[in-house]
Amino acid sequence: MIRIKSVIPKGGYRLEVQLENGSSIILNFSDRLHTVRFGLLNDKAFFRRAVSDGDFVRWDNKIEISVSEVLQLAQKENFKRKYHDK
Predict the structure, then answer these.
(1) By C-alpha distance, which of 31, 84, 37 is closest to 59?
(2) Within 10 A of 39 (CB to CB), how many other CB atoms are there?
(3) What pTM, to 2 d.p., does this model score?
(4) How many angstroms separate the CA atoms of 58 and 63, rounded?
(5) Which among 9, 33, 34, 39 could disulfide-bond with 48, CB atoms 3.0 to 4.6 Å apart, if both were Cys?
(6) pLDDT digits (tens, 9 = 90+) for 47-84
(7) Per-residue pLDDT, 83
(8) Is 58 left (phi over 0), alpha (psi -120 to 50) or beta?
(9) CA–CA distance, 24 with 6 (Å, rounded to integer)
(10) Whole-angstrom Cα distance, residue 33 to residue 18?
(11) Using H for helix, E for strand and C for coil, what is the string for 52-80?
């Protein structure tokens, strides 16, 4: 099973998720800040408090996403870029 090695908050509400297998994923949360689930991330100080225990990315135990959700979000972003940024 894939595990998270570390998370690095970046500018523009992007989060770099480094995996133990050496891969790295950058998720862009800017389009999700208006949602109920991710709205708290609109606070930049709160966004920068992202941590991981290897299985989840968490923000102060208020928001969490699992490794499989990280991969799903990355896949959705790839699809969006591929078909909407032409």
Answers:
(1) 37
(2) 12
(3) 0.89
(4) 6
(5) 9
(6) 999 999 999 999 999 999 999 999 999 998 776 555 54
(7) 52
(8) beta
(9) 10
(10) 22
(11) ECCCEEEECCCEEEEHHHHHHHHHHHHHH
